[in-house]
Amino acid sequence: MGVQKTILVVDDASLVRLYYRSTLEPAGYRVEEALNGIEALERLPIMAVDLLIVDVNMPQMDGFTFLSKLRANESTLASIPALITSTESGERDFEAARAAGANFYLVKPVEPEMLLEFAAMLCGVPQ
Amino acid sequence: MAEFPVLTEEEFRRLCEYLYRRSGMIFTEAKRYYVERRVHERMSATASKSFTGYFARLRINAQNESEHFVNALTVNETYFYREDHQLKCLSTDILGERIRNKRKGGMIRIWSVPCSTGEEPFSVAMWLLENWPLVDEYEIEIVGSDIDTKALEQANEGIFGKRALMRLSPYLIGKYFSAMPGERWSILDDLRHSVHFSRVNIVEPNETRIQGHFDVIFCRNVLIYFDDASRRIAAENLYENLLPGGFICLGHTESMSRISPLFEVRRFADAIVYQRPGESD
């Protein structure tokens, strides 16, 4: 990887954050974390992030609400690519994710290879 | 420094009786030296000049002495990935059965009791991260409980010595710990936060009940310290803490069949475990 890319993982479960982190870091990404949408919105303006990996079910602010708010932002933050991860696999959930502004939707469990493939694609890393 | 106490038979008997009522742990003459050493430690720490004085202090629980004494007596020797064949059984067989009737994203609760300084519950978390491909699909809650509040404090800190890590590969140590000065290692914050710790005496139903229901309980190498009566009470308490169809793993020298008829024996490729009968939720 040329310039190191930064990924913000937004998930309330520390085990899941660690799982994604331990997949992404060895592949050369820098990984930041937020526990929910509120924290992610607070931290985004002060960090340069190339990709968001966002869980749906989180306390305080869920993933869809977070993404909608982010997409409504007037700064360049609004265009950071976002990958939704969720245990739900219904058509309605895909629709809700799209409406909120997700670029892709992965159904959990997310295999490490899959995560790396989508991370590379959305960060624009040549594979 | 207090003198090394030699307890009279009567004193020793009264102390053991007190300990039994307080913690369910049973000590006999065979353990006299071990108990006396701990009494000695605590007498020094509290500047007690005689055993009689110390025992009075213990019984009125001056400055929480009763807790300090129990802490001093509990054995806290453990290490990461101890008896990992049971962890293998957890990821290959047990969890597969537990999720059969759960919705995706549902909760899986695992209880390590007693958890001492945290090696066991953290091992469960690490093992699942490394070996269970569905780790991000379910909401996994790991609870570690112990009667020893000092051990729990240490568990919460998440700092370990070389001995605790002796069975972990350099790869795992590098991945989940950061080295500190003095051959100590600090566990990653995310891993540390993945386990909740609480103080529980497993022979006290009021204390076990509030922990809620679990899919899997690890209760290893503690029942051996109890006499038959306390052992049965503990087993019944743990039974109540299991969801129907939930599993309990004991130490490899222990057998639930000798303790309580409530459980069914399940023989998996990697371990023999016990199950609360009934349909999973």
Describe the protein.
The complex is a heterodimer of chains A (127) and B (281). By secondary structure, chain A is an alpha/beta fold. Chain A has a single domain (6-123), classed as Response regulator (Rossmann fold, 3-Layer(aba) Sandwich). Chain A is 39% helix and 19% strand. Chain A contains 5 helices and 5 strands. Chain A has helices at residues 14-24, 37-43, 63-71, 91-100, 112-123, and strands at residues 6-10, 30-34, 51-55, 82-86, 104-107. Chain A has a 5-stranded parallel sheet with strand order 2-1-3-4-5, sandwiched between helices. In chain A, β4 (82-86), α4 and β5 form a beta-alpha-beta unit. In chain A, α2 (37-43) runs parallel beside α3 and α3 packs parallel to α4. The longest helix of chain A has 12 residues, at 112-123. Chain A is globular and about 35 Å long. The model of chain A has no long low-confidence stretch (mean pLDDT 93). Chain B is α/β, with parallel strands linked by helices and 281 residues long. Chain B has 2 domains: 9-73, Chemotaxis receptor methyltransferase CheR, N-terminal domain (Chemotaxis Receptor Methyltransferase Cher, domain 1), CATH 1.10.155; 84-275, Rossmann fold (3-Layer(aba) Sandwich). In chain B, 42% of the residues lie in helices and 19% in strands. Chain B contains 11 helices and 10 strands. Chain B has helices at 9-23, 32-46, 51-59, 65-73, 84-99, 119-131, 149-157, 170-176, 189-193, 205-209, 228-241; strands spanning 107-112, 139-146, 159-161, 177-180, 184-187, 195-199, 214-219, 242-250, 264-267, 272-275. Chain B has a 7-stranded mixed sheet. The mean pLDDT of chain B is 91. The A-B interface holds A 13-22, 33, 57, 85-89, 108-111 and B 104-105, 125, 128-129, 133-140, 175, 188-191, 193-194.
